[in-house]
């Protein structure tokens, strides 16, 4: 994660996990689950964020996805 991304993430999170969960993650999960299925439940969104934090380079992700397909 780049410094600006980290700053934005911390700004949104603001060290208040419960508020972040209630205000952002839960509504987003509901919206995505309705439109795209159960893969976008809150717990899976958290895992997706953790994954992106570990591999922030989109180019690497694209290459990896191509190899796994």
Q: Span from first to last CA?
A: 25 Å
Uncertain runs: none
Q: What is the share of helical residues?
A: over 70%
Query: What does the radius of gyration come to?
Result: 14 Å
Shape: flat
Q: How many alpha or pi helices?
A: 4
**Largest beta sheet, briefly?**
none
Number of separate strands: 0
Quickly give the structural class. Answer: mainly alpha
Number of domains: 1
Précis, in short:
The protein is mainly α. It has helices spanning 3-13, 17-36, 42-54, 58-68. It has one domain (3-68).
Model description:
The protein is an all-alpha fold and 69 residues long. It has one domain. Helices cover 80% and strands 0% of the residues. The two termini are 25 Å apart. The mean pLDDT is 77.
Topology readout:
Layout: H1 3-13, H2 17-36, H3 42-54, H4 58-68
Q: Which terms would index this structure?
A:
69 residues, mainly alpha, 4 helices, 80% helix, 0% strand, flat
């Amino acid at each position: 994660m780049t410094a600006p991304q980290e700053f934005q993430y911390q700004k949104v999170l603001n060290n208040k996990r419960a508020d972040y969960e209630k205000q952002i993650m839960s509504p987003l999960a509901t919206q995505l689950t309705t439109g795209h299925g159960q893969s976008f439940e809150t717990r899976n969104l958290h895992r997706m964020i953790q994954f992106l934090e570990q591999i922030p380079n989109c180019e690497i992700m694209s290459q990896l996805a191509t190899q796994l397909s």
